[in-house]
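Friendly challenge for the regulars: who can give me the C-alpha cells for this chain first? No prize, just bragging rights.
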Amino acid sequence: MSLSDGDLIHPAMPDQWPDLPDAFGALATTRRGGVSAGAYDDGQGGGGLNLGLHTGDDRETVQANHARLQAFLPGRPAWIAQVHGADVVDGDIRQPMLRHALAVRVAAHVEHAADPIFAVLDNPVCAVGDRH
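First reply, four minutes later:
Bragging rights claimed.
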C-alpha cells in the first residue's frame, strides 16, 4: 500500500490558495497512509503516517513513512525543523544560510532548525516539520 491523494491535504487547490503561481504546489500530511501502529496509527485501525523520530515511534517505521512520502513527491525533501527566528535554509543545497543555524540529524537526512526554507532549482521539495 502507498500514499494516495486522499491521505493528504492539498492547500494548493485553486479554490483554497487562489494566488499561488502555477509553478508551485503545497500539501500537508494527515495520519493516514503510513505504517505506524498503536498510538501512532491513523485513529481508525490503519497504519499512521508518523514522520517524527522524536515521538517515541519505532525508528524503522518512521523511516518507512518517510519513504512513502518521498515516493509521492517529485523529489527528495529538504527538511527543516521550524523554529521562529532569522535563520534561513537553502533547500537546493540543504545548507543553512547563516553559520549559527543548528543542524539536527534525523533519519537519512539532515534537518536544520530554521524559520524559512527556499529553493530555486526545478522540482525542489521543501519540507517543514517541528522539533517537539
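The chain is about 10% helix and 30% strand. The two ends are 29 Å apart (CA to CA). Your move, everyone else.
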